[in-house]
Design brief:
The two termini are about 10 Å apart. The chain is α+β, with helices and mostly antiparallel strands.
């Protein structure tokens, strides 16, 4: 077993259930597009026709909720180790370091830590991720790429601290420049008592006029609502398509390594983690994540990192 560079990509297998909803989404989209036309023809009528989308969507709704429950029903246990945690990294003051071999040792020790009541038990699989760097900016960049897809609180804090340390190291030699006093500023008209009283009086009159202007026809309101729903759905689909496209054809990143272990109990997983060739002490600023759970529970993250 060896550590493989990670190329972030879209988990197509783990999200295949989304394709099952395409037919219902197409039907719902066409029905929603014609809703405005139907509402325009409802003037003066007492009944409405909801269309075939309601009945057809029942099966898709059940399938979608079942797929979401299966995907989130087996959430693996998660352990994060960073150089900035108390008692983990080496160094003084703001500067803390944690080389890759020491990081692996910390992760392995936590697998068999009997003092932790939340430690996973049983015959399980493990997925280990290493974020390697020789400088803080390199570590922050690797964490940022991963946190953009799967943010974890400890990793987000480590990314921010690494970024702040880089900024501190860069800016501590800069002497700030300040313009001589006095300085130009805007006239604080909002503090004038005359304007305050005038604004309160005018605001009350405008509010009354707006209440009359907002008295529109219910059919027009329903048509506008249907139009907004269609626009919102298109925007959500576009964001999902852009995210999926950004993950296609990704290049392998040597600063992010992944390894799949198991099955086995905690002791066996610890032994597997420490076996084989691993990154060396040249990676002086490293962070790591180990996920422990069933093979099904790890499938989403495993496919996302290309294993």
């Amino acid at each position: 077993m060896s550590w493989a560079p990670v190329a972030m990509r879209w988990p197509s297998e783990a999200t295949r259930w989304m394709e099952q909803l395409d037919a219902a989404k197409t039907l719902a989209g066409s029905e929603l597009a014609s809703t405005g036309q139907r509402l325009a023809g409802l003037q003066g009528l007492a009944t409405t026709n909801p269309g075939p989308v309601g009945e057809a969507a029942q099966g898709a709704i059940a399938a979608g909720r079942r797929a979401l429950a299966e995907q989130l029903g087996e959430v693996p246990a998660c352990l994060v180790v960073t150089p900035f945690q108390s008692g983990i990294g080496q160094g003084r003051g703001y500067q803390h370091f944690l080389s890759a071999p020491n990081l692996l040792q910390q992760l392995a020790d936590k697998l068999t830590d009997g003092t932790d009541a939340a430690r996973p038990q049983g015959d399980l699989h493990a997925l280990c991720l290493l974020f390697l760097g020789t400088r803080y900016e390199q570590l922050a960049a690797g964490l940022a790429r991963f946190n953009a897809l799967l943010p974890m609180p400890e990793l987000v804090r480590a990314q921010r601290r690494a970024e702040h340390l880089v900024k501190l190291e860069t800016e501590k030699w800069q002497i700030p420049q300040s313009a001589p006093l006095p300085r130009w500023a805007s006239l604080p008209l909002e503090r004038c008592t005359v304007l305050k009283a005038a604004q309160q009086s005018i605001a009350g009159q405008v509010a009354v006029l707006e209440s009359y202007a907002a008295d529109s026809a219910p059919m027009a309101d329903l048509a506008a609502l249907a139009s907004r729903k269609a626009a919102q759905q298109q925007a959500r689909d576009q964001r999902l398509a852009e995210l999926r496209q950004s993950l296609e054809g990704g290049q392998a990143d040597s600063t992010l390594r992944a390894r799949l272990l198991g099955p086995g109990d905690a002791t066996q997983l610890r032994r597997m983690l420490l076996e084989g060739e691993s990154p060396g002490h040249e990676w002086v600023t490293s962070a790591g994540v180990i996920l422990v759970g069933s093979q099904q529970g790890l499938s989403f993250v495993r496919e996302m990192v290309g294993l």
